[in-house]
Amino acid sequence: MEPFQYHRPGTLSEALRLLQNHGGEARPLAGGQSLMPLLAEGILAPQVLVNLVDIPEMRELSWSDSGGLSIGAVVTQRNLELSPLVQARLPSLADAVSKVASVPVRNLGTLGGNLCHAGPGADPPAILMALNSSLRISGPTGERVLPVEDLFVGPYENALAEGEVLLAIQVPPMPAGAKAVYLKHSVRAIDPAIVGIGAMVQVRNGLVREARIGMVGAGPRPVRARGAEEALRGRPFDEDSIRNAAQAAAAEAEPLTDGYASAGYRRKMVAVFVRRALEKLRVTM
Ligand SMILES: Cc1cc2nc3c(=O)[nH]c(=O)nc-3n(C[C@H](O)[C@H](O)[C@H](O)COP(=O)(O)OP(=O)(O)OC[C@H]3O[C@@H](n4cnc5c(N)ncnc54)[C@H](O)[C@@H]3O)c2cc1C
Q1: CATH of residue 86
Q2: Is the CB of 123 under 6 A from ligand 1?
Q3: Beta carbon of 120 within 6 Å of any ligand 1 atom
Q4: Number of structural domains found in the chain
Q5: What is the CATH number of the domain that holds 36?
Q6: Ligand 1 centre and the CA of 35: distance in Å?
Q7: Mind listing the pLDDT tens digit for each residue in 95-141?
Q8: Using N-to-C axis directions, what is the helix angle for 239-252 and 263-282, rounded to 10°?
């Protein structure tokens, strides 16, 4: 591992100043679960690490009836999974996060670090897309808001500009009567998802009023299954519409072949897991 300067600022402004002063030589650090192995293997060699874990705004976890859940970027995945607030308000999110890796990884790994790492098989993006989440991003020129799906540019590549940090993840309240679920398909629990499907469906007067489906493992980056969502909206939430949605999701997937699964297998699993996720929601409505 190459030597690096280490900073642990106590304020957001100090962190932003450090990142700006060192430009492309500096890198934010959160739980270190993904970044430190890359440093140890010499794949990355930043000259400066700026640890974000002491920044108060990034540690907050709060709820408001208008805005929903605000999750500071350095809240750990374990704290989210065990939070009575998250379990009560957004149980599908608590459940999805509990499917990340193992307890030791979740004890240190943060939700913000997971998203910024932009792993193509990471679990949280699928449910966060289904729940219509957005990201508060802070940088030298101020703050901006980004829909979560726009963070992912490609495998291990995010849309943050140099000097920007992810400040918080905003998850709005569930629409009235809506239900959500996350299903993960992996070889071992600690592996990234071969395919992971997050789905949220709202039914009104017997018809699907809103449907959002987030997929991981279905392409080089996490994506919404917009064709599948269209196949559901305005129709009865029944076996036919679910079958059509599953087929649409498989058709719009652009899966990759890697050491875990072939593209062809992934495409088949997209159809299977979209159908299972929707069936699981249907029986609870
Ligand atoms: C053995 C193992 C198994 C795993 N299995 C899974 C799995 O099954 N599912 C899954 O979803 N994930 C899995 N992961 C990834 C895990 O969730 C990591 O904790 C997570 O991806 C990174 O979080 P972190 O806080 O440790 O981030 P770090 O490793 O500290 O940082 C990751 C990247 O994000 C950047 N970054 C971090 N925070 C910010 C921020 N606030 N703003 C801007 N940039 C930031 C860093 O510069 C770095 O590039 C696994 C990891 C390990 C080690």
Answers
A1: 3.30.465.10
A2: yes
A3: no
A4: 3
A5: 3.30.43.10
A6: 7
A7: 999 999 999 999 999 999 999 999 999 999 999 999 999 999 999 99
A8: 150
